[in-house]
Amino acid sequence: MRKAKAGPKYLNQLLREVSTFLCYEATADLEMEPCAVTSRLGEEKGQRLANRVAIVPVMRGGLGMLEAMTEMVCNARVYHLGIYRDKKSLMPVEYYNKLPKRVTVQTAFVLDPCPLSGATAIAAIDILKAWGSTADFKLRIKFVCIGASQQAVDNISSAHPDVPIHVGLIDRLHDPDGAPLAPILPGLGDIGDRLFGTDGNDDFDEDGLDGA
């Protein structure tokens, strides 16, 4: 995924593959309950999820992780959140919210592939907690990302110590001059732009991932 010439098609493929492993870990402790399964030859005891689950991709990058998660939890609800970081104030701005009015899920997985400072992730979790506060039960929230800076992990943990973080890799934050939007090194780039081909880079490998 780090490879500069990995175009949208292959980045999407790699995101899905890595997300599958992360989602497996993130869903490992979901509560199960017994159920009866009727086959053509009789009835057998099985298991199913005891509670309803929501998947909340933060657009646009989180969409690249969505397919893997929905395959892992095939009956999950999908609620989209759109959040961007204002270039002047550096504050997260919500521009899209498809959370339903009524809270009917017990667990929500927030998908955001590569948090830089964690501000967007924190905002998404804030939104979910405010939404979940209207229910008569405590909404359980988990955060899943492909990569992050250590600063992002620390910031999210500090703001929401009750939210488990499932992260694939931790890179360093390149911040020689104290710049608030310093890049992660070596990082993955802007996943949203790379995933949809809007990063201005047309020099990617059309045929595969092999080669320079």
UniProtKB/TrEMBL annotation:
Domain Phosphoribosyltransferase: 1-198
SUPFAM superfamilies per record: PRTase-like (SSF53271)
Name this protein carries in UniProt: Phosphoribosyltransferase domain-containing protein
Organism: Emiliania huxleyi (strain CCMP1516)
